[in-house]
């Protein structure tokens, strides 16, 4: 209880009244502080689910929509269910917070475990969004009951009490929303951040109930809360101690036993597998970006057709692994190669990892190569000089409703056309043509809408599915697409402009360069699969699915 009842036989003294008023104010402040903490924790759980699901499943817009919509629905359900607990609001709130701390704190571990050992995490994502949403929804009715109990003693009107509660809730959400990306995620990572948030949540809920409303509880209820919170904190602490071992085991389950490098940069997780002497595999955010066994199929088919014609000045958008640069540098008359890569960590590994550096032919040691760490869209818009490049190689992740969608937009290709010199050419990786034909042909339609003429073609990969190129499947050959859809484009000079010829530069180096017959076969496959014209994708209307 907040205060002991005054004696029935005598009015309280002035000192006693002042002391009681101070206790009520302290109690009200404590309730609002706990509202603030719980709101911050709830938003961290929400953001953590969105971030991890985007990494594990992809398509951040879809994952955010699923998490937010399911959580808001579940919060409504939780508010209705909490009506049954209002008669025992104190112990009900304590148990709700303990359960929320356990489920929210362990949600990232469970989601990652589902991805690593069960092959998917969509069902787990929905289940945790529902459970966390129900518990967050139950908080507000119970807290409102508790703060109204204090407000009646302090003779505060109910409207003012509700306003105070929601103000604390909204400010807490602001703090949690800012703390997750700027403090928790960079300093602790996703798994430990969730565990720490759960511990803070449990301590705050237990402290409020046991300290402020402890006298309202029976002995059995006090012991129930103490034991429940002790168990929750014990589970979270044990998980925090073992989180590194868990992460290593999960990483082995996802990537195999030969994980040599695992780095979390501010942009993405980078993993290199394989022996230092054999061909490496490079994973970015859980997706196989490069397979050392056959990456040449993709990079040679992407680069060499674009090198037919002037190619003294080349820019590679993406391609921080250095493999596209390796192919460009095989032409002695290339004067400069600019690699625009957002993540410095990828370039650092491509320079320093023995297997990756050997695979890219030590491309970054060539004096003609210059690296720019920037977002490709922003760089084209603000730094690329008009007409500065003969060839642009777009070696970017697969298009989708994610951050990469803008890199396959009509506006992006308009900026690319501005950077090309007269007679320049653009080579675009557009995703697997057979597995995702709608996406591939949307890229082609977007290029034409931006004023390019196009020559679609594809190239087949290793039939095992471990084909080295953007966004390959991870360790599940049956699900891996076996082709790369590519497009050679050039700015149209006017109506009726002929698309760029699909061929090879005179004296193209190396016996491994794809033959003209193979390229033309890929072009015939593409033309045979061409659908009716699709609408283009723009910044405000992205048309790529996951």
UniProtKB/TrEMBL annotation:
Cellular location(s): Cell membrane
Catalytic activity line of the entry: S-adenosyl 3-(methylsulfanyl)propylamine + putrescine = S-methyl-5'-thioadenosine + spermidine + H(+)
Molecular function GO terms recorded: spermidine synthase activity
Transmembrane regions listed in the UniProt entry: 29-57, 63-82, 94-118, 124-147, 167-188, 194-214, 223-243
Keyword Translocase attached: no
CDD domains associated with the record: AdoMet_MTases
Keyword Membrane: yes
Main location as per UniProt: membrane
Residue span(s) of domain PABS: 240-477
Residue positions binding spermidine: 299, 321
Active site: 395
Family that this chain belongs to: Belongs to the spermidine/spermine synthase family.
Membrane topology: Multi-pass membrane protein
Enzyme Commission identifier(s): 2.5.1.16
UniProt binding sites for S-methyl-5'-thioadenosine: 268, 341, 375-376
Chain's role: Catalyzes the irreversible transfer of a propylamine group from the amino donor S-adenosylmethioninamine (decarboxy-AdoMet) to putrescine (1,4-diaminobutane) to yield spermidine.
Highest taxon, organism lineage: Bacteria
Subunit structure: Homodimer or homotetramer.
InterPro entries to which the protein is assigned, alphabetical: MFS_trans_sf, PABS, PABS_CS, SAM-dependent_MTases_sf, Spermi_synthase
Organism the protein comes from: Streptomyces coeruleoprunus
Keywords on record: Cell membrane, Membrane, Polyamine biosynthesis, Spermidine biosynthesis, Transferase, Transmembrane, Transmembrane helix
Pathway note: Amine and polyamine biosynthesis; spermidine biosynthesis; spermidine from putrescine: step 1/1
Full protein name: Polyamine aminopropyltransferase
Residue numbers spanned by region Disordered: 521-546
